[in-house]
Amino acid sequence: MPSQPFAGHWALILGASSGFGAASALALARHGCRIAGVHLDRRATLPKVQELIAELEAGGAQPLFFNVNASSQDKRDEVIQQLRAAGVTRFKVLLHSLAFGSLLPYFPESGPEGGAEEAKAMGRDRMEMTLDVMAHSLVYWTQDLLAAGLLGPGSRIYSMTSSGGSRVMPSYGAVSAAKAALESHTRQMAMELAPRGITVNALRAGVTDTPALRMIPGHERILAMATERNPSRRLTRPEDVAAALVALAGPGTDWITGNVIGVDGGEDIVG
């Protein structure tokens, strides 16, 4: 039976229904934390969400889940109001694990022999949506939770980044920009929130076989290369990241803030 260092505490997970968010919800719940989750799922993926909720309930976590667009100001206001109405007074952990962006090249590729047939390219709306959901929403959620009194001394904020924030891949430009912006937001927030006793760090996961990664063109090659490159000769798993999150959110970590922390088995250090 795991120890219960988070008994009586709450965690809010943005992007809770799969991947890093779901694994972190389960890991935190096993250590006594109650879970509030925000996710956006259609009918096809809702059964998986219901399975996660059932597993959390079976462990006694009594979760609160909200199937809404996390980047919507109106929905954010509604969720915060419902959280306060449910008796949540403060979050020990806020995890930003939103992975919804546009995967398109910046410039259209010419059709056969330079003809008029061209592949679709990144436009303003898609670019702004990607940055808003995957980066800027971290700031907006933190601002509103702070104003509502749901974050305070002892709160731990984590964002999910990747090596894609400093590397390039086909059709990955907007997501790469979002990850770079997310890391910058993390540092700025760490500086501004330190006097309030709130820490902010980014977790840089290694290549992980998640639903989000499978949306990237050529993901099979990415997975194969990462497996070969990683010193442990395996991919990072969501559970690896969840375990690191539990450890970093535990006692004695209040002096760790403003960092991008690699959780990748050494993958990033291999050239």
SSE inventory with pairings:
Layout: E1 10-14, H1 19-30, E2 34-39, H2 46-58, E3 64-67, H3 73-85, E4 91-96, H4 124-147, E5 156-162, H5 173-193, E6 199-205, H6 219-229, H7 238-248, E7 260-263
Parallel strand pairs: 1-2, 1-4, 2-3, 4-5, 5-6, 6-7
Helix pairs in contact: 1-7, 3-4, 4-5
Task: Give an overview of the whole structure.
By secondary structure, the protein is α/β, with parallel strands linked by helices. It has one domain: Rossmann fold (3-Layer(aba) Sandwich). The protein has a seven-stranded parallel beta sheet, with helices on both faces. Helix 5 links the parallel strand 5 and strand 6. Helix 1 crosses helix 7, helix 3 packs parallel to helix 4 and helix 4 runs parallel beside helix 5.
Kindly state the number of beta strands.
7
User: Uncertain regions: pLDDT < 50 for 5+ in a row?
Assistant: none
Radius of gyration: 19 Å
Report the sheet with the most strands, covering strand number, pairing sense and barrel closure: 7 strands, parallel
CATH superfamily: NAD(P)-binding Rossmann-like Domain
Distance between the termini: 40 Å
- Give the H and E element order: EHEHEHEHEHEHHE
Strand order of the largest sheet: 3-2-1-4-5-6-7
Please provide a brief summary of the model.
Helices cover about 40% and strands about 15% of the residues. It is α/β, with parallel strands linked by helices.
Structure characteristics:
seven-stranded parallel beta sheet, globular, alpha/beta, 7 strands, Rossmann fold, 271 residues
